[in-house]
Amino acid sequence: MRFQPILEYLPIYEAGKPIELVVREYGIQANKVIKLASNENPFGVAPAVQNKVAESVSKMPLYPDDSYHSLKSALSQKYGVPESQIIQGNGSDQIFDFATRSVLNPGDKVVQNGKTFSMYAIYSRQCGAEVIASETIEHDLDALLDLAKTQKPKILFLCTPCNPIGDALDRSDIYSFLAKIPEDMMVVLDAAYLDFAKTRDSNKNFEAKDIISKFPNVVYTGTFSKVYGLGGMRIGYGISSPEIIRAFYKLRPPFNVSQLSQLAATEALKQESFVESYLKSNLSELKKYESFADLKGLDFFESYTNFITIKLDKAKLNSSELFEKLLSEGIILRNLKSYGMNAIRITIGRPEQNETVIGRLNEIL
């Protein structure tokens, strides 16, 4: 069978290792495995959300309301934007897919940071576009602006806070940067980790309503996978100008978010105390990892997320070897070798999980 030529060069996205793999390959009981690899909420979901899903299982045979009115109404209230400027996605990943397919043709260019979420490049290359990355690890807006001017991309991806690094941009710098971007260049602003950033530093916060009103070429994306604990339900959203959202809807398949996912997300938006409790715990536990790294003389990136990325060169450790060793013991972290880095990314877990991981790292180091 002859496939599209581009598929010969496209990588397959590598997700964090699942608990099931550790159970199969190492014979470790599932409840003994510590998974801190995929930036999930270690406290799960709010009880009210679980109850909502449990009482709604009888709706599984039915297609969802394809207008997604309940969800979009809740998001409209949260962000202060009309429902006509919101689109739901099967994870925020699907919004990136809509963005690339809506404007890219073979040979077009896309600009992104040197180290950033790998799906931006994958979706872009699926469209035959050339992906141009800055040479920086953390975001350098001057470098990105130079690329935007010289390369004239159709799309620029901006992830703040950034996965897999954890750095975040100040609101004033974002606004200044966007003001210099041509109006016909789409900017996808990935805000998956924004709740964590504004908890640590309010200067890192920016409002979707304000951004898209000032810059109609911006697509703001959000997810329910992080603070709301709905990674397994696959639900996200995009907020932008009516023109862009209409274009995205022409690419959207019907019923792109499941019945139970919509119900869970709508209920999750009501659980502010659950979210606040998690954010408080996350920041407190994150600082424990920072203190540990400082004590051991390890370099790390200052994080405004629910993970920390620790570099291993000073410890003369190989990230792949460390990853495999801990995996065999039932501790799943994220090896960043695929990003060209000798580093590990650790999701901030529950206090007892973090104590175990820090203790084991201390023994190894």
UniProtKB/TrEMBL annotation:
Asked if Transcription is a keyword of the record, the answer is: no
Q: What is its EC number?
A: 2.6.1.9
Task: Say which species the protein is native to.
Answer: Leptospira perolatii
For this protein's source organism, the top of the classification is: Bacteria, Pseudomonadati, Spirochaetota, Spirochaetia, Leptospirales
Asked if the record carries the keyword Phosphoprotein, the reply is no
What's the name of the protein? Histidinol-phosphate aminotransferase
Gene Ontology molecular function: histidinol-phosphate transaminase activity; pyridoxal phosphate binding
Q: Which HAMAP family match?
A: HisC_aminotrans_2
> Matching NCBIfam families, A to Z?
hisC (TIGR01141)
- To which pathway does this protein belong? Amino-acid biosynthesis; L-histidine biosynthesis; L-histidine from 5-phospho-alpha-D-ribose 1-diphosphate: step 7/9
